[in-house]
Amino acid sequence: MSLSVQEVNEAKAKALAEIGAAESAAKVEELRIKYISRNGLVPEFMKFMKDVAPADKPAMGVALNALRTEITDALTSRKSELASSGARHGAFDFSLPGNWPRAGAMHPVSSVIEETARIFGQLGFTVADGPDIETEFNNFDALNTAAHHPSRDPADTFWLEDGRLLRTQTSAVQIRVMQSRKPPVRIINPGRCYRRDTIDATHAANFHQIEGLYVDYTPVSLADLKSTLAHFAREMMGPGVKVRFRPHFFPFTEPSVEVDFSCHMCKGAGCRVCKQSGWIEIAGAGMVDPRVYKKIGYDEDLHGYAFGMGVERIAMIKHGITDLRLLYTNDLRYLQQFA
Ligand code: DAH
After folding, report:
1. What is the pLDDT of residues 209-226, one digit of tens each?
2. Same domain, 73 and 33
3. What's the pLDDT score for residue 232?
4. Has residue 18 been placed in a domain?
5. C-beta 189 within 6 A of ligand 1
6. Which atom of ligand 1 is closest in space to residue 309's alpha carbon?
7. 143 lines ligand 1 (CB under 6 A)
8. What is the pTM (predicted TM-score) of this model?
9. Domain range spanning residue 286?
């Protein structure tokens, strides 16, 4: 048996053509076994080397070397070609990371509203509704606000051309509810409010309040208001929260208070969120002024309390949000952490 350089080169051409035409990784593997495995064609050819005439050895050596390296290279490159074109043509790659659909979650403002409705719901309060566009009567007059009160100023309130306005407080809903229902009345009303405030870390021109109103024939006292709001604070912020009532003035309540919660972030020690005071103002409240009952035709002997809380304020101390604007830039990377 002998082997010529020409036969080697012909075998090489045939092998390279077969490899080039292989359409699957399995076929490439089959050809690898056929040509370069221990019993394959290339080692088989190598055995002839010892029988080659000394003069022909160099040429045969070159041909056999070329046979081995070219076939080996062709197998490797065909294999990777098939792998990448497979991916291009949509073959499923099980090693890729999963594509997880994101679960939706509630915005912190919405979840404070929902939680508040739950807490007051357990105390017998139902949720009332009112429009964002209000009459001057509901937003100011019926709430016993003086004709020249500065809050009516166009620099503070968004007025519409027809004399109506974007409500500056959810207190307007108190009027709607009392005009449409007989006592006892026990409602909360979450909603948007609008003021011409300069926007900064703690002020927005559009924000949310939750109004509360309880009016009854039986005595309702400031102590009831205090215990109700203290209960709410503990349910919302946890048992460690402290509640502080400061005397204040509102035209539609007498007496009136402002209500502070101890800062949830620093537990009252003072931090950036509470501006180092340890307290955050959350609500205005008080006993409904009989003048309000009179304006809307309720019996002036009724007893009731009302309160109005800032929703963003609650969300901020609950979550340690230092800038109210972060709630409204709709950056999911930020909001997601409260889900
Ligand atoms: N509406 C008031 C405000 O926006 C807050 C308020 C104070 C609401 C006293 C009340 C209340 O119901 O009784 O500043």
Report:
1. 999 999 999 999 999 999
2. yes
3. 98
4. yes
5. no
6. 5
7. no
8. 0.72
9. 108-338
